[in-house]
Design goal:
6% strand; 3 helices; elongated; binds zinc ion
Amino acid sequence: MSKRRRTFTKAIMREALARSGGKCEAQGVWYGLPSGQRCNADLSKGVQYDHVVRFADGGESDLTNCAAVCIACHKHKSAKVDTPGAAKTKRMSDKARGIKNPPKMQSRPMTTTPKAAKRKATAASKIPVPSARPLFEPKG
Ligand SMILES: [Zn+2]
């Protein structure tokens, strides 16, 4: 099996653009459009080539997975679908490998006011310290 290409070849991009008829090929909710609706924006103002199924999710860099889309559609899908999807894919694969976030440190609620703490400290300092015991019995 040949190595998968991450990017479309120029030939594929040319074919996708020709197929588009110069109109944005983005379609449906992934691109922020009503389901089944095609954008059809004029691509002469700017065109980008989008992997309909992300490369990371197994999408090939071939003509069937290449959409000639307008900048707005590409931006929308990148921000709303591809990036969160990538994060989710990462989380899922982490989960499968037993990689998870360490438990959150719970900060201890402050139970005493600074004044009460000072009073407590003062009281402790008043407890008589027992006289030190000799560490060694002096030899007689
Ligand atoms: Zn569009």
